[in-house]
Amino acid sequence: KLGVATDAAENGAVALVMLTRPRHELVFMDSLMPVMDGYEATRKIKGSTKGQATVIIALVLVVSRGLSIPA
After folding, report:
1. How much is the pLDDT for 43?
2. pTM for this structure?
3. How confident is the model over 5-60, as pLDDT tens digits?
4. Residue 3 backbone zone (phi > 0: left; psi -120 to 50: alpha; other: beta)
5. Can you tell me the distance from the alpha carbon of 46 to that of 56, in angstroms, rounded to the nearest whole number?
6. pLDDT of res. 68
7. Residue 26: which residues within 8 A CB-CB, separation 6 or more?
8. How far is 47 from 41, CA to CA, in rounded Å?
9. Distance separating alpha carbons of residues 38 and 68, to the nearest angstrom
10. Rounded CA separation 29/57 (Å)
11. For residues 56 and 58, what is the distance between their CA atoms, to the nearest angstrom?
12. CB of 59 closer than 8 Å to CB of 28
């Protein structure tokens, strides 16, 4: 309905490969991904000429034991 296409990467290293394609204008980056975390992936993206124009919104999810979210 919104006219957008989405992709999901299982870690920062995969995200870097996906961002070599020209279709990404906005990135929601999980800071705590395995293999390469979002901080390192963001540094690498912003370190490239193309990546300087990429909008990256950082996300962090911290789960505490005993915390439950109602269904």
Report:
1. 93
2. 0.72
3. 888 888 889 988 988 877 788 899 988 888 888 899 999 989 988 888 889 999 88
4. left
5. 9
6. 61
7. 54, 55, 57
8. 10
9. 25
10. 6
11. 6
12. yes
> Which tokens hold the place of 5?
């296409």
Amino acid at 19: L
Length of the chain: 71
* Paired residues of 37 in beta bridges: none
| CB proximity list for 62: less than 8 A, separation 6 or greater | none
Give the DSSP per-residue string, 13-71.
Answer: HHHHHHTTSTT--EEEEETT-SSS-HHHHHHHHHTSTGGGG-EEEEE-----TT-----
Neighbours of 47 (CB within 10 A): 9
pLDDT of residue 5: 81
Task: Provide CB contacts within 8 A for 19, sequence distance 6+.
Answer: 27, 45, 51, 54
Would you state the structure tokens that stand for residue 40, as one six-digit string? 């390192």
